[in-house]
């Protein structure tokens, strides 16, 4: 895996991933940034959320569960002093599907958090990580 990060102006940076995609990052105004893009640590949190959401959807699909939507709402706390690592992260999953079983979602969340989501597991080395979820049955809506 490769990534190239280039300084563009003030405290703005553009990252180009090995797959050829670009992402802009910026700093807070009080740190010389212009607040035009997410902060690098926000990107890290978003990456972990994307990683675990991907796992949960894939696990449910492979189990032939009718998942139609998955959202991960995350809250995090950081250390007060440098390095300001994440100290607590909570993932709350809202998973929707027709006839989707709570036990299937719980299993998918557990597998992601304990085995598959590299980003979340890595962040768990410095942060107390917790999870919760809710299942929304969309059978009646159909």
From TrEMBL:
Query: Gene3D superfamilies recorded for this chain?
Result: 2.20.25.10, 3.30.300.20
Please give the Pfam families that the UniProt record associates with this protein.
OsmC
Enumerate the InterPro entries for this protein. Answer: KH_dom-like_a/b, OsmC/Ohr_fam, OsmC/Ohrsf
Instruction: Give the matching SUPFAM superfamilies.
Output: OsmC-like
Classification via NCBIfam families: PRK10738.1
Q: What is this protein called?
A: OsmC family protein
């Amino acid at each position: 895996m490769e990534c190239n990060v280039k300084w563009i102006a003030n405290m703005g940076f553009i990252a180009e991933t090995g797959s050829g995609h670009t992402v802009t990052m910026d700093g807070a105004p009080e740190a010389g940034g212009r607040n035009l893009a997410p902060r690098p640590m926000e990107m890290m949190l978003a990456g972990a959320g994307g990683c675990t959401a991907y796992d949960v959807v894939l696990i449910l699909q492979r189990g032939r569960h009718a998942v139609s939507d998955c959202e991960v709402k995350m809250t995090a706390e950081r250390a007060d002093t440098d390095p300001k690592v994440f100290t607590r992260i909570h993932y709350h999953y809202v998973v929707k599907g027709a006839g989707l079983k709570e036990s299937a979602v719980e299993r998918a969340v557990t597998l992601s958090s304990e085995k598959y989501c590299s980003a979340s597991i890595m962040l768990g080395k410095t942060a107390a990580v917790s999870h919760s979820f809710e299942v929304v049955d969309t059978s009646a809506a159909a």
